[in-house]
Amino acid sequence: MKTEPIQNYKYIFGPVPSRRLGTSLGIDIMPYKTCTLNCVYCECGKTTNLTTDIKEYVPIEDVKKEIASYLASDKNIDYITFSGSGEPTLHSKIGEIVNFLKDNYPQYKIALLTNGTLFYNEAVINGVINADVIIPSLDAASEKILKKINRPHSLLNINKIIEGLVLLRKKFKGKLLLEVFIIPEINDNKEELKKIKDAAALIKPDRIQVNTLDRPGTEADIEPMDKASIEKIAKYLNNAEFISNNKRGGKNYFNNDTENNKEKILSAIKRRPCTIEDIIKFTGIKKEEAEKIINELQERNKIKITKLERGVFFH
Ligand code: SF4
Predict the structure, then answer these.
(1) What are the chain's domains?
(2) Would you state the pLDDT for residue 44?
(3) Long-range own/partner contacts, residues 255-264 (CB < 8 A, 24 or more apart)
(4) How much is the pTM?
């Protein structure tokens, strides 16, 4: 593909240090905020287009052009990851992008962060079958809790979702990590955890990972789980891994150009709220410089602030 330099990327972001994937270049192929779910903890805000319609939401040729431009020179990244501000498996041509990456950039691994709701449709599985890692979520195993946490589209139900994940595991030979997001007093009770454990026994992921709120979600009254309790839950769920913030790794490739860093910061916090520490990790710039940029963005009303126990988040 002919590569032309692109100044402002629309569909790719980062690279960002990821908790699980080292240094990860993000690909966001969904318009804000199009999803099959409307999770109470979503970092991107409320779902404005709750849908199960699979179609070409953004032009695949434009996505390929951005990838080719960014990867025209070798980049020191570990993963290229489908994630962002919606559910990527809703895009009808995700498979074409996966295969484009595999054919042209085999040196990078491909990861998919997904809510896991569409795998009852075998065409969706076939599209992502060549990824290296798939990380679907399963926060509930009963209809009641699914509705409470994930607030799904009316065409989805918990049996359909679990059956889809079982089918995915049967067909997908790469690494499958099942993520369970724990919310106090909603899905941390014995009954629901037992159901989730039973569902996981059917799905057979390589590993379960548990997670809890660490940055502002859609609903203000959603609380993070305390560390001791979540570690207990992780143990119960087949010695699951607790994905804590301090497991974030990665390198960075940003230079010290303030304008460039400003764009990168905006691009990162548009997709997920970040603390100043997150921003420093993403950009690699000195704290003073990061604070200067943040202050300027605040003065221009480009960003909002939310204070949580873990720190001050910019979004
Ligand atoms: S957390 Fe993920 S699955 Fe849930 S609403 Fe947000 S984008 Fe959709």
Answers:
(1) 12-252 (3.20.20.70), 254-315 (1.10.10.10)
(2) 81
(3) 256/285, 256/289, 258/289, 258/292, 258/293, 261/285, 261/289, 261/290, 261/293, 262/293, 262/296, 262/297, 263/8
(4) 0.82
